[in-house]
Specification:
By secondary structure, the protein is an alpha+beta fold. It contains 13 helices and 19 strands. It folds into 3 domains: about 150 residues, no CATH class; about 220 residues, no CATH class; about 100 residues, no CATH class. It is elongated, with a radius of gyration of 33 Å.
Length: about 475
């Protein structure tokens, strides 16, 4: 690297550092003083400082994305302006060197700094996104005193968020720290029609389940009732976490187990010599479009009598619906520690009485995703790979916005370089005074900045909304730089 290159690089990096410190501090100080009352909820002074430091420690990486492109352009303009102000550019021209030779190290460094911003966007921000979406007052509550009555962690309403199966979820309140939904409702919709509606109402709470508990991840609803609103079939008595009405009795399940053993070539135990059956077969109750499974069927006494009791250990009562064009869909599965068969006699409804019953619904809408989607900016905190997976999952309520965001990830680094190329020719020009040059540079950059956001909010297709400014201003910026008299 030649002496001139080292000098330009050193001057430019110094300008970048000073601009970075100045704009970051200004951004943080303005935000902090405007919202200081929210940090005060943390309690004593030491915890207020912890809350401020913790919040802006994470927000620093988001602010870097917001200000990084502007800082690079500003530092480059200041570098060239200073060299012009001190007549260093005149000396360089007198030595027979082109001004393009001075600008080239700045452009190459600007490209390298854009790589840093891309790493921040694609690697760092997605990993801390769950911290970036926390409001200031909620962040302050994380540092509140132990005896403080302020709630710990973020809390917010879930307003009809969709999972991968287009099932819509609603809840009055979601608690981030405990991963609990309060009074949740999930609505199963037909992919082409809306007449099918499966709803789980919980008067209590819903907990995220361990993925290993039922073979898949999902939610467990306590004190829940399952509604099916379908002209072809409605539950006259709604199944709930206390009892599930059925026409399949314990006696029938026992007989099915005996039949399976006979069909398999085994000799079933003689009545009166056993009182439980391990892994009884799945039995379907066509009246309710329900499947019954259990780890064990227990009964007493061993001899069949009119008052014989039947109990299912770890039962599962799965309700389905056959919808046109959508296949067979699960509405929900009632699980329990035990289920006891209750037959009140002729003309009375028969049901399974559940012990510690819950309603399980499998879904890919995890607590982490619920927490992310509550923020209006959560899409901007996702990596490009996450945005692509989110689009493919079908959960995006506004696919155009998500696709536009993906294209913007590619367009923004290029836009920053174009801003630089648009602004530098005015500072390099010796045909007007420096003040006029800086003013023209500022106006040109602002026009381009405004045009970029005009295209994004104009409603154009995502590709054109992101890349139209590049296609129009990219050639103009190169032509302007090449036209500089050197």
């Amino acid at each position: 690297m030649k002496t001139l290159d080292r000098y330009v690089v050193r001057t430019f990096l110094t300008s970048v550092f000073l601009a970075f410190v100045a704009f970051m501090l200004l951004r943080i100080m303005i935000d902090m003083f405007v919202n200081f009352d929210e940090y005060a909820e943390a309690g004593e002074f030491g915890k207020v400082l912890q809350a401020i430091g913790g919040y802006y420690g994470y927000q620093f990486f988001a602010y870097l994305l917001q200000l990084g492109g502007f800082i690079i352009v500003f530092a480059a303009v200041v570098t060239i302006w200073w060299m012009n102000h001190t007549n260093e550019l005149t000396a360089i021209l007198a030595s027979g060197r082109s001004l393009h030779r001075v600008v080239m190290p700045i452009i190459l460094l600007a490209i390298l700094l854009q790589v840093v911003l891309v790493i921040d966007q694609e690697v760092i921000v997605p990993r801390i996104a769950h911290k970036l979406v926390i409001d200031r007052d909620e962040f302050a509550n994380l540092f509140a005193e132990e005896d403080d009555e302020a709630p710990k962690g973020a809390q917010f309403a879930v307003n009809l968020l969709c999972d991968g199966d287009r099932t819509a979820w609603y809840s009055r309140r979601f608690e981030e720290r405990t991963a609990i939904l309060h009074q949740p409702v999930y609505m199963i919709r037909h992919r082409k029609q809306l007449y099918l509606l499966g709803v789980g109402l919980a008067r209590g709470v819903a907990h995220a389940t361990d993925e290993e508990s039922y073979g898949q991840s999902g939610w467990l609803l306590e004190n829940a009732t399952l509604f099916r609103m379908d002209r072809r079939l409605d539950y006259n008595v709604k199944p709930n976490t206390d009892r599930v009405h059925a026409n399949v009795s314990g006696e029938r399940i026992l007989q099915e187990a005996i039949n399976v053993a006979i069909d398999a070539g085994h000799t079933p135990p003689r009545e009166g010599t056993y009182d439980e059956v391990n892994s009884p077969p799945m039995v379907r109750d066509a009246s309710y479009d329900m499947e019954i499974q259990a780890d064990k069927l227990a009964f007493a006494p061993q001899e069949p009598t009119p008052d014989r009791t039947y109990r299912l250990i770890n039962p599962k009562f799965s309700f389905f619906v056959d919808s046109q064009g959508d296949g067979r869909r699960l509405l929900g599965t009632f699980v329990a520690d035990e289920a006891t068969w209750v037959d009140l006699g002729t003309g009375k409804r028969k049901y399974w009485d559940l012990t510690n019953g819950k309603l399980f619904y499998p879904t890919d809408l995890s607590p982490e995703e619920l927490f992310m989607q509550q923020s209006g900016q959560w899409v901007t905190y996702m990596s490009s790979a996450q945005l692509g997976a989110f689009l493919q999952s079908g959960k995006a309520t506004n696919p155009r916005e998500v696709e536009l965001t993906r294209y913007i990830r590619i367009a923004d680094p290029i836009n920053n370089i174009i801003r630089l190329l648009l602004g530098l020719p005015f500072i390099l020009s010796r045909e007007r005074n420096l003040k006029a040059s800086v003013l023209m540079c500022l106006l040109t950059v602002l026009v381009f900045f405004g045009f970029v956001y005009f295209c994004r909010f104009l409603g154009l297709p995502p590709f054109w909304g992101a890349f139209l400014p590049i296609l129009l201003f990219g050639p103009i910026s190169l032509a302007m730089l090449d036209s500089v008299k050197t």
